[in-house]
């Protein structure tokens, strides 16, 4: 499964196209991301860090942006999406896209895997809607979109586009 990509035209500037004008794909500060230097909190990452991805093996981080924002959020209990998936209770922005590869993908979308916003998986028991909460969000930006390993989940990175588009 390849994420949709948008090409860079100048080789220098990388911007972000957000799915929601306020949020899009962003991790909550404290979320542990797998890197070649080990599992690190998202807010400790910086441009040039090498992150382990599902789709490319390893990708170099182009930019990291942090901001505090009040937004809809979802809570996912540890082990809800499989053994150690997530490996601990996780909080995500409701718009954060998750790659699911279990019975939910087949039952809900008729496919073996699906990339869906966390809000679409709310069941009220294991995956709960938290309403609007204030979160410190960390956007991990690469030259192309990737699927990251974060807290045992497979989560989509921000969508890069050429600045000015």
How would you portray this structure in words?
The protein is mostly beta strands. Helix content is 4%, strand content 44%. It has a four-stranded antiparallel beta sheet, with no helix packed on it. Strands 1-14 form a two-stranded antiparallel sheet. A two-stranded antiparallel sheet has the order 3-4. Strand 12 and strand 13 form a beta hairpin. The protein is globular and about 40 Å long. The protein starts with 14 loop residues before the first strand and ends with a strand. 32% of the residues are buried. The N terminus is likely disordered.
Q: What's the SSE blueprint?
A:
Elements: E1 15-17, E2 27-28, E3 32-35, E4 38-41, E5 50-53, E6 57-60, E7 63-76, E8 90-93, E9 97-100, H1 103-109, E10 114-117, E11 127-141, E12 147-150, E13 153-156, E14 159-161
Antiparallel strand pairs: 1-14, 2-11, 3-4, 5-6, 7-8, 7-11, 9-10, 12-13
How do you describe this structure in short?
The chain is mainly beta and 165 residues long.
């Amino acid at each position: 499964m390849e994420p949709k990509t948008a090409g860079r035209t100048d080789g220098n500037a990388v911007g972000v196209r957000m799915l929601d004008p306020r949020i899009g794909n962003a991790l909550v500060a404290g979320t542990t991301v797998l890197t070649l230097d080990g599992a690190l909190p998202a807010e400790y990452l910086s441009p040039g860090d090498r992150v382990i991805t599902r789709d490319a093996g390893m990708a170099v981080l182009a930019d990291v942006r942090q901001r505090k924002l009040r937004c809809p959020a979802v809570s996912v209990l540890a082990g809800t999406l499989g053994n150690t998936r997530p490996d601990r209770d996780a909080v995500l922005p409701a718009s954060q896209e998750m790659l699911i590869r279990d019975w939910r993908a087949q039952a809900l979308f008729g496919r073996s895997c699906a990339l869906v916003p966390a809000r679409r998986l709310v069941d009220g028991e294991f995956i709960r809607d938290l309403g609007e909460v204030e979160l410190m969000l960390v956007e991990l930006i690469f030259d192309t979109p990737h699927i990251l390993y974060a807290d045992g989940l497979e989560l989509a990175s921000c969508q890069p586009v050429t600045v000015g588009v």
